[in-house]
Design goal:
There is one protein chain. The protein has eleven helices and ten strands. By secondary structure, the protein is an alpha/beta fold. It has a single domain, classed as TIM Barrel (Alpha-Beta Barrel), CATH 3.20.20. The strands form two sheets. An eight-stranded parallel beta barrel has the order 3-4-5-6-7-8-9-10, surrounded by four helices. It has a two-stranded antiparallel sheet with strand order 1-2. The radius of gyration is 19 Å and the shape is globular.
Length: 318
Amino acid sequence: MNYRNIGKSGIKVSEIAIGGWLTYGGTVDLKQTTPIIHKAIECGINYIDLADIYAKGKAEEIIGTIIKDFDRPDLVLSSKVFWPMTDNINNRGLSRKHIMESVEKTLKRLNTDYLDLYFCHRYDPEVGTEEIVRAMDDLVHQGKILYWGTSVWRADKIERIAGAAQQFNCYSPIVEQPRYNMLDRHIEIDVMASCKHHGIGLTVWSPLAQGFLTGKYNDSVPEDSRGGTSNWLKGDLTEENIAKCKKLSELAKSHKITLSQMALAWILRRKEISCAIIGATKTAQIEDNVKASDIRLDKETLNEIEKILDNKPQIPVM
């Protein structure tokens, strides 16, 4: 396993990380999850990504139980705050009240004294940047979080929050967590540039497009799969994308690697990326995915991939 700094910060994370949204985000099982996390750590993964909304706190509780088997400093733990956890009008968003109360609940569920990373899980148009920045800065000073960042924020909002942190002499965000994969490249337009400018690292989620880029849907959509039971892949399961996936599968096979490994290595080709956060329901998936950290795609292969994808984002002419 190889490791990278998150942006300009000193903290290092494994190029492949494991997400706590381990099943479909709605259910988490200790018996199923334990061997997956153990295998991930055994394979060199040090970063476990969570959010309070995953299974309404249950994911944090399960991970909190599992990590008792390991030395806390050996792990990089993250969680997120934004989505409503109850019907309480103040139990949502990025108000100082919600941030301060939510982090305490997260720490209790994880049975830890601090988080390495704490994310603002979405942008909140109802809360000013100064309130958010000062709340996060206070948490850093209190030792409850070490670093903070944003998740699924547009470039202009990242610029604004980074500017506010500088203006008020507060700890700046050091990480953004967007969706990024071969089929969804929107961050290449401006998010990557903004993050690079401010020294913000990118820990990307859905690197395999919810399993689409494993090739599992090349021939059909299994009824019990995510594509068959949820709407998460509704926009990706098109004839055009399936045709691309088949070509990518053949290219990967010609290089004696799996499509998953090639898709992850393709993401890690970008220096702006700190890590790719995978999901897993089987230990074999962990073993396959972590090998991507040692794969370097040459220029010729990258050009072949680009021709197949034919979806490089274009900056609009104003």
